[in-house]
Amino acid sequence: MPNYKTGENYAFLGLPPNFLIFDEYVVYMEMLTTKESAVILNKLKQIVMLGRQSGFFLILACQRPDAKYLGDGIRDQFNFWVALGRMSELGYSMMFGEVDKKFFMKRIKGRGYVDTGGSVISEFYTPLVPKGYDFLREISDIGGLNVNTEG
Prior knowledge:
Helices cover 26% and strands 16% of the residues. The protein is an alpha+beta fold and 151 residues long. The model has no long low-confidence stretch (mean pLDDT 83). InterPro entries: P-loop_NTPase.
């Protein structure tokens, strides 16, 4: 690339960010054979470990954040963790590690906890999205991003 400069990233070169959104990650991994699972994990590891500088980001969504599906150092590369809904103490420890924090159950839609990469866990509220809202279209309209869906 003619505009490449050491220490800069994709934004410096005018490249757009790319997001791979993998919903129901754990359910999918549980459907695979051990060999298939290893192949997928290897590909995800490449995206997570090498992709950030080039503008490729991975977003995983799952009901139960089991660490056995985030091996080989991938887990440590995530910079934003969100836990929504009612989780068990085990679920919170899978999500945030062993922390000295009391988690409270409040029956509020969209409420949970977040760690933005600084190991400080805070209360978090998501916006409520109306039924029928086409968020994929909204995402694609932001800055002309291209949104592809599989599944």
